[in-house]
Amino acid sequence: MTERPIVIVSNRGPVSFRWDDQGELVARRGAGGLVSGLGPLVIGTDTTWLAAAMSEADREAASAGVIEAEGFRVQAVSVPAEPYRMAYDVIANSTLWFTYHGMFDRPLRPRFDRRWREAWQAYRDVNQDFADAVADAAPADAVVLVQDLHLALVGPALERRRPDVTAVHFSHTPFPGPDDLSVLPDDVAEELLLGMTGHHACGFHTARWQAAFDASCEAVLGRRGRSFVSALSSDPDDIEAVAASPAAQAARADLDELLGDRAFIARVDRIELSKNLLRGFEAFADLLDHHPRWRGNVVFGAFVYPSREGLPEYLAYRQQVETAAEEINRRWATAEWTPVLLDTSDDFPRSVAALTRYDVLLVNPIRDGLNLVAKEGALVNDRDGVLCLSPEAGAWAELGEASVRVHPYDVAGTADALDGALTMSSDDRRAQAEARRAIVSARSPADWLDEQLAAAR
Amino acid sequence: MTERPIVIVSNRGPVSFRWDDQGELVARRGAGGLVSGLGPLVIGTDTTWLAAAMSEADREAASAGVIEAEGFRVQAVSVPAEPYRMAYDVIANSTLWFTYHGMFDRPLRPRFDRRWREAWQAYRDVNQDFADAVADAAPADAVVLVQDLHLALVGPALERRRPDVTAVHFSHTPFPGPDDLSVLPDDVAEELLLGMTGHHACGFHTARWQAAFDASCEAVLGRRGRSFVSALSSDPDDIEAVAASPAAQAARADLDELLGDRAFIARVDRIELSKNLLRGFEAFADLLDHHPRWRGNVVFGAFVYPSREGLPEYLAYRQQVETAAEEINRRWATAEWTPVLLDTSDDFPRSVAALTRYDVLLVNPIRDGLNLVAKEGALVNDRDGVLCLSPEAGAWAELGEASVRVHPYDVAGTADALDGALTMSSDDRRAQAEARRAIVSARSPADWLDEQLAAAR
User: Fold this and answer.
1) Nearest chain B CA: its distance from A435 CA (Å)
2) Quick check: B432 and B386 in contact, CB under 8 A?
3) What's the rounded Cα separation, in Å, for the pair A91 and A74?
4) According to the model, what pLDDT value does residue A345 have?
C-alpha cells in the first residue's frame, strides 16, 4: 500500500443510488470484478472512488459531492446523458472495444463519418468531466488510479489542474499493435496514445498487451510512455465463500443430480463477441459427431449472460447463440440426455457451482484482456477439472503451462482438444489442477492494487 | 537476366486453349498484370511457363507436355477439378487471401472444421501436382519462379525431386505478422511458412510485407528464411500504347464530352472487398454534402469490374456497390449532371482512358499487396491529376511522398482529402505528378524479373 491518499476512477462504481418510498436516496452495492476485488481492500482506507452517475438518483447523489455509502467514500460524476451515451456506446464499446479485440469486419466497418466525430468529441468531454471531478475531489498528493478504456484521456486533463496528484492508467482490455491500432483515424490514434501516456504510467494484464502498447507508441508518437504489467487476480476467500454459500451448494446439488456420472464441460461468459461462444458450440457438436463415445455421456453447460444488448451486433449474437444450442439439442438429445444446458439467467452462485463441478472448462476467446473465469475455476473446482484455454486470453501468460491449448478458430482442433481433456489420466488432471491452483493462489487483488500504487512512484 | 533457363509457375498462365470448329486446339493469349508485364520479356528466351489447366481443352493441351503457343513455351498442369476448386476457392481465395488482407469478421469467421481440413489437403495435393510437373519439365539447373499464394508449398516438394533447380517464391499479396497469421490453425501456419521458406528466397512488393513475413517466421519457426523486396512495376510502353489505341482514344473523347469542364475523380479496381469501394462512395457522398461547391461540378467515375462471384461475399459486395452508386445519384443527380458514373463492364481501354483524364485518382484500399493502378495512372494521366492514396497499399512505399494520404476507414477525412486534392494549386499538382511519373518510370517489369533471378543466386 501507500501513505498517499488513493482515488479510484472508473466508469462503473462500487455503489449506485435509488430513491426509497419516502424519496430518500438509498445506496446499493454494485457487482463486477473490479468492485468485488478492490472493495474489501479500500473500505476503511483513505480511498475515494469516482464513477459515472448512471441514473437520476445517481445524479442527485453527485450533487452532494463526496459521500459515505456502503462503507465506501464515493462520488458520482454527473455527465450529461447524451454525450455520455455517445462516449460509452459509440466510442468505448463500438470503437475502442472492437479495435482492441480485433473484431471489425473491415470491408464494412468501422466507418468514421461526421457523426462519429461528434461522438469522439463527446468522449473527450466526458473524460474532461471526469478529470474536473477528480481535480475537485482528490486530496492533496493523491494517487489517482484511472480504470480502463472509457477514461483514456483523464491523465493530461488532470495534470493541468492538479500537478500534485499522480495518475496511473490501467487497461482491462487487450491493446493492439500499430497494424490494428491504425484502423483508428490518424489524429484519434495519436490523441488516444497522448492521453494514455499523459498518465504517470499505463498498466496492462500481460506483457503481450504492454509490448503492443509500447510498439504503438513508438510507431505513432515516436516515443514510449512508462508502462507496467500487473495481472488482476481473483480473491480466493471471496470466490470460495460464494462456492460455499447455500445458493451455490443448492445449485451444485441440482447439477450433480442432472449430470449423474456424465462428464461435464462448462463455460461461464458474458454473451460477448470476443468470447467465441459460437465456435464453442460447434466444437462440442463436432465432438459428438466425431468422437461418438461421448454421445449420451457428456453435458456442455454454457452459463452465459446477456451483455450490451443496446448494440445490434450483441442482440444478433445472442440469437445465434440460442440457435446453436437448440440445434445441437434437436439433433442429439434423447429421453435421458440433453447435451447442451444453456443458462442465460446471470445467476452468479449457479455459475460458481458450475465452476466447482466441471471436468473441462472451455475458455476459448478470440481475444481477451485477461479472463478471470479461468482463475476462479482454478480456485473452486473440486474434481481436478481440465482447463482448455485459448492463447488469445491474457490469462494464458500465467496459466498456459497448466492448460490444454485450444486455437480459437480451429473448431475441429478444439473438438479434439475437448476429447483429449475428457480422457486425460487422473494423474495428469491432478498435476495440472494443482499447478493452476498454486499459480492463481500466489496472487491476490491486493498485489494488483499494490502494483498500481508502486507504478505511481 | 541470367544464363540459367527460367521456369515460371503460376496459377493463371499466359495462354489458354479452346477447340476450334474442326476440333483442333487453339491457343489464346491471356490477360492480367503478370502476363502483360512478363510476356514481352520472356518470349524468345529460354523460359517455360507452367500454369493450371482451367478447362477441358487446357487439360488436353496439358497431356502434350511443353508446347509452343502464342510465342510462349507453356505447359498446362492438369489438376483434378474438385481438389483444384477446393484449393482455389476455399484455401487460396477464402482463407489465405482473407488472412493476408485482415478481412475476417472474426467473431464469425474463419471456422476451421473437418471439411476445411479436406480443402487444406487438396491445397497440398495441388501444390504437389505443380511441383511434379515442374520437376518433369524444368531444364537442368533452371531457376524456378513460383508466383503467389496459390503455390506456397511448391519449393520443398520440388527440392526433393530436383535439387539442381533453384526455386524462388514471390507473393503478390500483403503478408501478415504473427498476430494476424495466428488466425490459421497452428499446424497450418507452420506448414505454410515451412513451404515458403523451403524456397531459396521469398519476395514481397514492399519492406512492410517482408518484415511481417520475417516476424512470422521468427514467431512460428524460430528462424527466418531468406527474403527480398522487389516491387512490380507497370511497363510504360505497354500502358502508353493502350492509352494511344483507338479504343482508348474514343473512350477518352466520350469522357471529355460527358464531363465538359467538370472535375473528375476516378477509381479503377476489381470489385474486391479489400479495395474499399463502399467507403469510397461514402466519402464522395460526404464531399457533396459538406463541400457544396462541388454539387454539379464533379463526377466520380468508378470503373470497377466483377471478381470472384463464386464466393457469396463478393456477390453481396457487388450489390452493395451498385446500391451505393444509385443512392448518390438518386439524391443528387440533376437534368444536367449525374454525379456517379459506375462502369462494371471490365473494358480495359475505357479504364485506361479514365486514367488519362482524372483530376483525382482514388486508391483507398484497406490493404493491398501493391496496386498497379496507382502506377499506371502516374504514367498516362495528362492533367497532372492528384493521387489520393491509402498507406495500406503496397504502392505507398514508393508513391506516398508524392500523394495525398487517405485513411481507408476515415470517410469524413477522405472527403476532406478529396476536396483538398480538387483544390490543390496547379504548381503543387504538377510537382506531385512529375515526382510520381519519375518514380514509376524508374522501374520496369524487367527490373522485377531481374531481382527475382538475382534472389536465386
Assistant:
1) 25
2) yes
3) 26
4) 93
Which pLDDT score is estimated for A1? 59
Q: Return the closest-CA partner of residue B166 out of B371, B455, B415.
A: B455
* pLDDT at position A2 over 90: no
Compare CB distances from B412 to A114, A186, A313 and report the shortest one's residue: A114
Alpha carbon distance A50, A126 (integer Å): 13
Name the residue facing B412 among A107, A112, A366 (closest C-beta): A112
A110–B409 CB contact, under 8 Å: yes
Write out the DSSP string of A415-456.
Answer: HHHHHHHHT--HHHHHHHHHHHHHHHHT--HHHHHHHHHHHT
C-alpha A311/C-alpha A313 separation (Å) is 6
Residues in chain A closer than 8 A to B316 (CB atoms): none
Helix axes A33-42, A236-244, angle to 10 degrees: 110
State yes or no: pLDDT of A115 exceeds 70.
Answer: yes
Query: What's the average pLDDT block by block, 10 residues per block, for chain B (457 residues)?
Result: 88 92 89 77 89 91 89 92 96 98 97 98 98 96 97 97 97 96 97 98 98 98 97 90 96 98 97 98 98 98 93 94 98 97 95 98 98 96 98 98 98 98 98 98 93 96
What percentage of residues in chain A have a pLDDT greater than 90? Answer: 87
> What residues are paired with B229 via a beta bridge?
B204
State residue B39's pLDDT score. 82
Q: Is the confidence at residue A133, as pLDDT, over 90?
A: yes
Preferred mutation among A95, A97, A100, A106 to probe B, highest tally of B CBs within 10 A: A106
Residues of B in contact with A117 (CB under 8 A): 412
Residue where the block lists cell 539442381: B164
Q: Which domains does chain B have, with CATH numbers?
A: 6-233+446-455 (3.40.50.2000), 236-441 (3.40.50.2000)
What pLDDT score was predicted for residue B309?
Answer: 86
pLDDT for A10-58, tens place per residue?
999 999 999 999 999 899 887 777 787 788 888 888 899 999 998 889 9
Q: In what order do the strands lie in the sheet with B340-343?
A: B340-343, B298-305, B263-270, B360-363, B386-389, B404-405
A&B contacts, CB < 8 Å = 99
Q: Strand A67-69 to strand A72-77: parallel, antiparallel, or no bridges (unpaired)? A: antiparallel
CA A442 → CA A233, A393, A435, A447, distances in Å?
A: 9, 19, 11, 10
**Identity of the amino acid at B456:** A
- Contact flag A107-B180 (C-beta cutoff 8 Å): no
Which comes out higher in pLDDT, residue A37 or A234? A234
For residue A307, give the DSSP letter: -
* Angstrom distances, CA of residue B297 to CA of A56, B66, B266, B309: 51, 56, 14, 34
Q: CB-CB: which of A105, A179, A286 is closest to B105?
A: A105
- Find out whether the peptide bond into A110 is cis, omega within 30 degrees of 0: yes
The arithmetic mean of pLDDT across residues A240-265, rounded, is 97
What CA–CA distance (Å, rounded) separates B274 from B366? 5
Mean predicted confidence (pLDDT) in A429-442:
97
Does residue B328 come out as left (phi exceeding 0), alpha (psi in the -120 to 50 range) or beta?
Answer: alpha
Residue labelled with grid coordinates 473446482: A381
User: d(Cα A252, Cα B47) in Å, to the nearest integer?
Assistant: 73
Q: Which uninterrupted H or E stretch holds B147? A: strand B143-147
Q: Do A410 and B112 touch (CB under 8 A)?
A: yes
Name which of A107, A177, A407 is nearest B366 (Cβ-Cβ): A107
Checking if the pLDDT of A200 tops 70, the result is yes
Q: Any bridge partners for residue A169, and if so which?
A: A146, A202
Which residue does chain B place closest to A182, by CA atoms? Answer: B407
Ordered alpha helix ranges (H), A138-228: 154-161, 178-181, 186-197, 207-221
Amino acid at A259: L
